[in-house]
Amino acid sequence: MLGRLYPRAANVGLRNTLLVSRRQIGTMRDDRYVLFLLALVVSLGVVSVLGARHHTASEAEQRARYQALVERQWAEQPDRHPHRVIHYGFLVFREEAPLAFFDPGVGPYAGTSLFLEGHRQNAASFGDARHATGMLRFGRLTPATVLGLLLPLLVVAAGFASVSGERERGTLRLLLAQGATPGQIMGGKVLGIGALALAAALPIGLVTATFAAVGGEGQTSVTRLLALAAGYVAYLTGWVLLTVWVSSRRASSRAALVQLVAIWVALCVAAPRLGASLAATLHPIPSRAQFTAQVEEAQRGVGDSHNPDDPFFSALRDEYLARYEVDSVEELPINWGGVVSREGEEVTSRINEEQRQELLAAHRRQDGVLAWFGLLSPYLAARDLSMAAAGTGTEAVEAFRAQAEAHRYDIIQRLNDLHVHEIRYENDRAQRIARQEWTRFPVFQPNSPSLRRALTDRPQSLTALGLWIVVPLAGLGLGRRQLPRVGVDGSGS
Questions:
Q1: CA-CA distance, 450 to 391, in Å (whole number)?
Q2: Which one, out of 72, 248, 301, 314, has a CA that is 20 to 30 A from the CA of 145?
């Protein structure tokens, strides 16, 4: 039936490609070093999934427990003055994404809890990286690290002699003499090495998918898993194509190995660090202390609600007196102290958010530098897309901060409204609000950014990963024309 559907030449070409692929697989199977590396990468990958899953599950359990404790403490407050509750504050905890155990992304550096209170925006605290020992700061082994850094080394070790080894053994001319074309030879080598990469990545992927299914995240995890799989398949495909290409261009396997290792060091080790240093140099970011000082300086320029002669709040007082047609704040039908607190919160929140947006813009400029650097380093592009698919990128952290700030502002202004309308101005501090009021406040329920948004915000990384496949594929297409002219001894014919 296949003979009727396809021309004979196509069947012969496919058969030759598959035969070369089987030959490459057999060569790798007989190489005990390749088998050892394969077993090592698979073991590290599976162990990293198990360890990361245990760590994230433990962290999630602790956060849920503490969040329930904080909510219970909030609801069990005694009768209090609403402004006292404003300064009492409350904690919210950042929930990790369902696939954070696969790729934690920026989570370890972003902090896990945020204390929300009146008149200020605090930074998140208790990030794993900030409170880890020196050894842990060196880097926790994650499945994303295994696939992004170690698996390419396995591909290099297995394929550096794929074509150059045939040339050194004198079997390349023999394959060509038996009817295999240069394209079929290279295609077979790519398939063989790709099968090894798949054999290494598949166990890691299956264990990851199993834990994601057990987590019960439903369709969201399935979609994100497919996006992760697509990204790493493209990334590893590029390494397989590059390995065969370099091997076909070198007369000796040793030269091919040296060049491939140098490329791995340049793309996966040097480029990310160089990109980060360049981004920090071009777009410096103030320290937390400097940022806090900038916010306080900006607030001092607006007004002081505790100073009765302050121009801003003096004008506000005159406006309210005119609106209610009274001569003093004591005659107002509402509590002037609550009005000042409400207006002051609006002003300070606006200033805080303006300063925060400037800081966020600097972070985005740094991310932009790294995104363009991804055109030179596919590892940066793959890592960026991996974080996006796992839901652990910078946009997830910023979404949590923005939603927490919106929740904080809503709660504080609700308390200020209670101060305005439920507390009399006379003998203000001695009055209280019934404790039942605290149970009517909303509970913080953050939402994560969608996968579509995370991916569409990364055009450079998507382009870089596409080029990572196209460039070595084009090199193989050009290289196959030169392959038949290479002599058995490696010299040109």
A1: 8
A2: 248
Per residue in 320-332, pLDDT (tens digit) is: 999 999 988 888 9
Closest CA to 86 of 412, 420, 413: 412
Note whether 113 and 401 are within 8 A (CB): no
Label each residue of 331-355 as H, E or C.
HCCCCHHHHHHHHHHHHHHHHHHHH
With beta carbons less than 8 A apart as the criterion, state whether 431 and 418 touch: no
* Residue 435, both tokens: 């404790």
| Residue the block writes with tokens 């204390």 | 115
Which residues are within 8 A (CB) of 192 and not within 5 positions of it... i.e. 6 or more apart? 20, 21, 22, 23, 24, 25, 28, 162
Residue 493 lies in a domain: no
Residues 420 and 338: beta-carbon distance below 8 Å: yes
14 lies in which domain range? 2-485
Q: What's the structural domain count of the chain?
A: 1
In a domain, 20, yes or no: yes
Within a domain: residue 491? Answer: no
> Does 124 have pLDDT greater than 50?
yes
**pLDDT tens readout for residues 194-243:** 999 999 999 999 999 988 887 655 556 788 999 999 999 999 999 999 99
C-beta atoms surrounding 331 within 10 Å: 12
